[in-house]
Design brief:
Elements lengths: L1 H34 L5 H9 L9 H29 L3 H30 L3 H22 L7 H23 L1
Helix pairs in contact: 1-2, 3-4, 3-6, 4-5, 5-6
Family: Belongs to the PMEI family.
Pfam families: PMEI
Protein name: Pectinesterase inhibitor domain-containing protein
Length: 176
């Protein structure tokens, strides 16, 4: 008789642990399911899992998290461009860098924040358009600096890829 009674607390402990893990498992499943619909699965998963908010998020929340990751990346890229401008003495490099600062500045200060606000308000088409435009601006910077010895290619490509992922997530909202 002692055996079954003493195993009851252990069973209850296991049950409580499993139940407490269900939200984590469900959020990981939603992240994986959502990221499977994007062009850069690994980037999507790593970006979303880096946010503690993703564990409670629905698809709209995941789109918002991805938009914020994209905004953070674009902001860091703009800051890096300003650092490069301040360090360069070569006018042949300064011109394309200034161009890049001019295209990234509205992305960071207007385009992505407005897209995030539109997303929050359920205006998914406008959000998609804004985030897509931000990716186009990063591509424009890349075209302007290609062939020059500037360490911007990876940053521009990451911004474009993050935008593509965010747009793909928003597309799932538009399709539902």
């Amino acid at each position: 008789m002692k055996g079954p009674v003493s195993s009851l607390p252990i069973f209850l402990l296991h049950a409580v642990l499993l139940l407490s893990l269900l939200p984590i498992i469900e959020s990981d499943n939603l992240i994986e399911k959502t990221c499977n619909k994007t062009p850069y699965y690994d980037l999507c998963v790593s970006s979303l899992q880096s946010s503690s908010q993703s564990s409670n998020a629905d698809v709209k929340g995941l789109a918002s998290i991805m938009g914020n990751v994209t905004l953070s990346n674009a902001t860091n890229t703009l800051n890096y461009i300003h650092e490069l401008i301040n360090k360069t003495t070569d006018p042949e490099l300064e011109r394309p860098l200034t161009y890049c600062a001019e295209v990234y500045s509205p992305v960071v200060n207007y385009i992505l924040p407005q897209a995030m606000e539109a997303l929050e308000n359920g205006h998914y088409g406008f959000a998609k358009y804004g985030i897509s435009d931000a990716g186009d601006e990063a591509h424009a910077c890349e075209k302007k600096t290609s062939g020059l010895k500037l360490p911007l290619t990876e940053r521009n490509k990451l911004t474009q890829n993050l935008c593509d992922v965010a747009v793909a997530i928003i597309n799932t909202l538009l399709d539902s």
